[in-house]
Structures
1.
Amino acid sequence: MDAREMKIKAARAALAHVESGMRLGIGTGSTAEEFVRLLAEKVADGFKVEGVPTSERTARLCVELGVPLKSLDELPELDLTIDGADEIDYDLRLIKGGGGALLREKIVAAASKRMIVIADESKLVRMLGAFGLPIEVNPFGLVSTRIAIEKVASKLRLEVDLRLRQSGGGDFTTDGGHYIIDASFGRIPDAEALSYELNSIPGVVEHGLFLNMAALAIIAGPEDARTLRANR
Ligand code: 5RP
């Protein structure tokens, strides 16, 4: 079974948690897009749902496939968000933002009663950090913000390699008009401390550590999809 089939399997299992009439946050990335495709099939059969997309990319796919959308201002409180992740540990801490949508993803997940994360088994890790942590930053004061992130790493005794994300020959820009610095730490032994310190840097708009947000993770392997629950 290839990665795409596992993503579809996780997405299908997540769909079972979606009830008719729900206000649904809809994530970004290739796994979330498999979820959108399956959801669209149900909508075409008459299933009622209202979605709030976490990116322009997801919004375009939903419109193309006929999934009804509202803005977060129209539906400020959501029942459930389904989204992918770049890394998931066994306490359901996440790294997100590989697709550059972490700010809207975090706002939408925080506005939801529950978040379910869907992924193939390659995303499940003992410790976060092999995937570079996406940090969304304001373009103003980029060099100062970069230095501040390096100081945070040094305070927490972490090695870090920072790269300004590039796309199509230029700086990658998020839907909110910000840049992304991908911070490769290698390992993040204390995600809570790192999150706290990054949040204290004024030029950091948001970072890709999603802590205490996911209630369930549906992880698909070649054999089956298993569900991990948060201990909270
Ligand atoms: C986008 C994200 C995605 O959920 C994450 O990058 C996983 O993507 P994929 O399902 O394509 O592996 O956080 O900002």
Note: The chain has two domains: 3-125+211-222, 133-203.
2.
Amino acid sequence: MTAIATLGSHCALQVLKGAKDEGLKTILVCEKRRERLYRRFSFIDEIFLVDTFAEILEQKCQSTLQQNNAILVPHGTLIAQMNSEQIESIKTPIFGNKWILRWESDRIMKEKLMREAKLPVPKAVTNPRDIDKLVIVKRQGAAGGKGYFLAANEEDYNVKRNKLISQGVITKEESLYIQEYASGVLAYLQFFYSPIKEELEFFGADQRHESDIEGLARIPSEEQIKIDKVPSFNVIGNSPIVLRESLLDEVYAMGDNFVDAAKRMVAPGMNGPFCIEGVYDENAKFTAFEFSARIVAGTSIYMDGSPYYSLLFNESMSMGKRIAREVKTAKELNQLDKITT
Ligand code: AMP
């Protein structure tokens, strides 16, 4: 029997519920402090307790996963808490392409892949001296928007950076990535690419709610001005958005281009779930500032199926269930090596 395993955080509930619904065994690698939460859910067959997620690299955890023929579904927590070398050294087969996760974590590689995919990316600013319009300053990796800040010029950049350093939010050594700020309606486009069917599916879209930038937007500008705090973009939750149907053709084209570029740049390509993140401006032109090369937490909005998947499947299909379905199909066809790395 094949099992699906994942780390206890991010979108673990959705992933394991989907696996259970597909008749697969479910294993959660869980920090002890979160055990109480996850014990509440009967679809989790086995909980492997750890002090920190880094224990997934240790023999004990790896052999448990191996004995269960487990496939590990990577999510944002894996990327946030482990570096690329650690992720790549995991012996358990990883759903999708573990090599592409490095391209997600490293801002320079990320921009390269997005350009290769012809995604309309905002201009990067290499030197703070060259900031001449509103920019967003980001940290490396999947920081979830924590420690990000906006800057209008070099001085503004230095003041805010120093403030965050003195508050211990970022470190002095940390290399920051500066990108032009793109304003518009947020849309995080969620896809699934099946290397078995060689088909791209558009699953859905979501928006993120980020604190404290969102809280700030709720108060009048006279009050905003008085606040002496660098607002962060820390993700608190997600909500659904359905796009104008006239935008869908371009959405699929962006997804296709991304899959094609990933095939060229990082074998075996962008297999499984991924997300292209950006904004639509007043002319409905999309600017993509980010991608995630694995399942995003925003898919958990649609645990009971998404509007777009209801067009493709005559059953409720979450992203977690879609992943498990792909594992089952691959197993039946003896092609597990096609969907894991
Ligand atoms: P990221 O880690 O790149 O997904 O960024 C976290 C959040 O910062 C996003 O959800 C957006 O709200 C915001 N953001 C990132 N890049 C940009 C950009 N270039 N223009 C506008 N907002 C951005």
Note: The chain is about 35% helix and 25% strand.
